[in-house]
Amino acid sequence: MSTCAPHRSTTLRRSQWVAGLLAALALQQTCLAAQAEPAAAELKLDQRRLAAIAGLPPAPGSAAEAADLAILEWLQRFRSPEIVATTWLLLDRDLNVFSSAVGTELGKATPMLSAGLHAFMAPVNSAYRGIKQQQGRIRPYIAHPGLEPCLPRENTGSFPSGHAVWFRSTAELLADLLPERRERLHHVGRQGGANRVLCGVHYPSDVEAGQRLGADAALQIIASPQWRAFRQDPALRAELELLRAVPAKALPPMLR
What we know:
Helix content is 68%, strand content 0%. By secondary structure, the chain is mostly helical. The protein has a single domain (4-250), classed as Up-down Bundle (Vanadium-containing Chloroperoxidase, domain 1), CATH 1.20.144.10. The protein is globular and about 55 Å long.
């Protein structure tokens, strides 16, 4: 009994230390989120402008709709297992998917940036979801059972692509903060939308509309006083300096 007691005591202390550290990190995230939310408060996007920029899906039976389907059928025949595997790397709408573009694991290294972008994307998400519900376009694999998607099926509408909106908006906002990494960030932003077509979960026109909407939403955010105030936040500026400190030659190769 006596020989085991010190080991158990040490293990207990370590467990308590880890639990305390996790609690402190969780509290930090909560505080930063609360700090970031006011930065995006009262931000209003021009919903009509976004809807006009997104446009309308191809009319049923039109040549444009037939072209949409033909692209998906061609991609399904020729996509390789290796290509499919890379699409899963950009499945989640999470800031970490842009880590390869900046050479740092964004979720851990930049809590203020993460919380701020999450807050600024809230009105963007609301805008595209409203358009998606209004348009009610059926997903391609539901309308055409011969299509076999290589990413998880979803039950929401198809137009516009929410992933394309998120990836394009996030890429533009990050590029505004880190112009040194603009090309790499845009590459991830484009790839995140293109994967939705490659795997047959969206029509090409869904992704094109999402990219247009995402780009304009980012422009509206960047022009807002809320974004300008966010850019001046000392905590954010410190995080951006850490990201800029990563030398270009240390950046990993981009996914193709």
